[in-house]
Amino acid sequence: LPLAARVSDSSLFAATTDAVPGWCNDALSEWPMPPYNLSGGLHLRLLFLALCAVCCECSSQVAHGSIGVIYYTPEKIVLAAESRLTSGGADLVPTDDGCKIAAVAGKTVFISTGVTRHLPDRFSAAWDSSDLFRNAYLRVKAVDPRASGIAEAATKWGNAVADSINVDARQRPGLLRQFLMMLGPGSAITLAYVGGLDDENKLVLFFAKATPDVLGQLAEGSAQPVASCPDHGFCGMGNSRDLDIIREFANASSERAKRESAEWTPPKGALPTDYDALKTMRILEIAVHHHQGNDAGGPIDAVQLDRNGLLHWYARKANCPQD
């Protein structure tokens, strides 16, 4: 447009705002729209739109998920997760098709939250947290089919997620700060629990994660064994409020939690052996109900692995792999 252009409506901005992140449009909607005379210099509104377009180009197209509940004893491991994924890109549109749980080769179970998916863009290829674990476990088993491979696969997953994030982070300064703004201060970028039978046929559980390094510029992976889940066998995944809710209802430590414990019963037809899995799903349902924000919800997926090696899906969306 010529510098002498005079604008008396929002038509100048209509095409531009279609291409910028939603938070830019939200901010712009708070600004009045009087006529603008551009002959004296670029108006702050146009400068803001230009900066938003740059931010949109620099932001990473990721999806993140919120809440998971784990039940772990020497007899069984139960994993339950909600399905919502919230995009970290320009549209911020949530979907309820996230596959946050995987059961690979009928031998190991996996759950992850945080940044769990990256969509392809000009900086890096697509990746999915569950697929990275599946690949890590199968690579370990290909080297030594007789070994359990749980510990090594958990470590390889953490490193694979960190490596995938760092492809972007090296080209987008400040990317990790962007992730932590989405997930909350002090959060891991991506975290997971991995369970299965070890070489002595004992059920074991590992906690793995990808976190910012000491400089906050790149991600690094790690994994460690979980001795036990301290809240009557339950562990949680989510923000601090989510974890408080999970602990409250796992331990029945409040009046409302005691009422819930006294009144809740498994669905009609459930077997006694189903109780722990159904209870895990119920605690997740409660945590989602009390979650603040729109980044948790949708159908619940749940799987159980027993000490005898039997694996049973209690709930699984059609788009999520069984094995």
Concise structural overview:
The protein is α+β, with helices and mostly antiparallel strands. The protein contains 9 helices and 16 strands.
What is the topology?
Layout lengths: L5 E2 L3 H7 L4 H8 L6 E2 L6 H15 L3 E4 L2 E5 L3 E6 L3 E3 L6 E2 L5 E4 L3 E11 L8 E2 H15 L6 H20 L5 H9 L6 E8 L5 E10 L6 E7 L8 E4 L2 H12 L3 H9 L11 H16 L10 E6 L4 E5 L8
Antiparallel strand pairs: 1-2, 3-6, 3-9, 4-5, 4-14, 5-15, 6-7, 8-9, 9-10, 9-11, 11-12, 12-13, 15-16
Helix pairs in contact: 4-5, 7-8, 7-9
Q: pLDDT under 50 segments (min length 5)? A: 1-59
Distance between the termini: 57 Å
Give the number of DSSP strands: 16
**Strand percentage:** 25-35%
Mean pLDDT: 81
Assign the structural class, choosing from mainly alpha, mainly beta, alpha/beta, alpha+beta, or little secondary structure: alpha+beta
Evaluate the radius of gyration.
Answer: 23 Å
Helical residue percent?
Answer: 25-40%
Inertia-based shape: globular
- Please trace the helix and strand order, writing H or E for each element: EHHEHEEEEEEEEHHHEEEEHHHEE
Sheet having the most strands: 9 strands, antiparallel
- What is the overall number of helices? 9
Describe this structure in words.
This protein is an alpha+beta fold and 323 residues long. The protein has helices at residues 11-17, 22-29, 44-58, 129-143, 150-169, 175-183, 240-251, 255-263, 275-290, and strands at residues 6-7, 36-37, 62-65, 68-72, 76-81, 85-87, 94-95, 101-104, 108-118, 127-128, 190-197, 203-212, 219-225, 234-237, 301-306, 311-315. A hairpin with a 6-residue loop joins strand 12 and strand 13 (219-225). It is globular and about 55 Å long. The protein starts with 5 loop residues before the first strand and ends in an 8-residue tail after the last strand.
